[in-house]
Amino acid sequence: MKKYIYLLTLTVTAFFVTSCGSEDKKAVEDNSPAIVVKTSDVETNSNSPFLAVSGKIQAANSADLSTRMMGYVNKVHVNVGDRVRKGQLLVSINNADLQAKRAQVNAGITEATAAFNNAQKDYNRFKNLFAENSASQKEMDDMTANFEMAKARLESANQMKNEVNAQFTYSNITAPFSGTITSKNVEAGNMANPGVPLISIETPGTFEVMAMVPETEISEIKNGTNVDVLVKSINQTIKGKVSELSTSAKNTGGQYLVKIDLDKTDANILSGMFTTVQFPVERKAKSAMVLVPTEALVTNGQLSGVYTPSESNTALLRWLRLGRTFGDQVEVLSGLNADEAYIVSAEGKLYNGAKISVQ
């Protein structure tokens, strides 16, 4: 009888566990409705035979101003956007220690000047005595040496004054040229450190473009080549001319730096605007360019990607490496192939793994 009771207990326990497992599976089953989405095939662009690269506008005359001394900032005399003239005071740094050092140097100059004048008188007197055979050669040599040492000490004191005056120029930061203040990285009371930019200034009106050209194309570009520069933010094309060509890509990852001087224009361009530079050079690389619209991109910090439909009808987030921008489209360097599709719109909030229904 005990054996039958034991078997009955095991059967009930197994039935209970099986039932609970079935209930758990039913509980996690996703019954949410599928999100209706629209997809589009990847576009390719291989029609343009000319080389086009991305670039960035910057002022032809610009400077980041810093100091060679450490000290607290007493006052910042300008704000971002202010127009300043050459030599205008921009930042004042506390220089109490320099003032004390200059006072010491001035006292040293006074002392060295008095000693020099006295040594010069003794030298002239002994020079006359030596000419009259009233002083020995040894006495004349001693007076000459004393005079030369006094002269050297006076020169040293004057050079120390020049050094202190040079240090004062680093406590008062002035504009090296007339222009506009573009950034201010310090406020009154902050500590100024050597080499750290405090103020940035540039001369508006004259601009240049810095572009990176791949190693497969750089040999075809020459100094003085005329180019077309499309400024994307204002959708205008400006003429330019190649002014500098880098001969090394050691620190630029296989890309060669090319500088282009822009022609004078009435277009409202500013430093930092992105451009597309088109060279009158036939592209050697004939591979098709993969393009996606910028409105389809999903961003997370510095990452950019798109949602693509998976074989199981779920949304799959694909992170991309992007290249140049062409109007409302951006080039995809990796992460998406030319024979794939991506989601352009959805009637709900997409997330990685969400059920979708392609319309």
From TrEMBL:
Chain coiled-coil ranges: 140-167
Q: Extract the PROSITE patterns matched here.
A: PROKAR_LIPOPROTEIN
Ranges for domain Multidrug resistance protein MdtA-like alpha-helical hairpin: 103-157
Keyword Lyase on entry: no
Entry protein name: Efflux RND transporter periplasmic adaptor subunit
Q: Which domain of life is it from?
A: Bacteria
Entries under InterPro entries matching the protein: Beta-barrel_RND_2, MdtA-like_BSH, MdtA-like_HH, RND_pump_MFP
Q: Which family does it belong to?
A: Belongs to the membrane fusion protein (MFP) (TC 8.A.1) family.
Q: Where is the CusB-like beta-barrel domain?
A: 210-279
Write down a Pfam family by its short name: Beta-barrel_RND_2
Instruction: Enumerate the UniProt keywords alphabetically.
Output: Coiled coil
Domain (Multidrug resistance protein MdtA-like barrel-sandwich hybrid): residue spans on this chain: 62-195
- Provide the organism lineage as a comma list: Bacteria, Pseudomonadati, Bacteroidota, Flavobacteriia, Flavobacteriales
- Tell me which species this is from: Winogradskyella marina
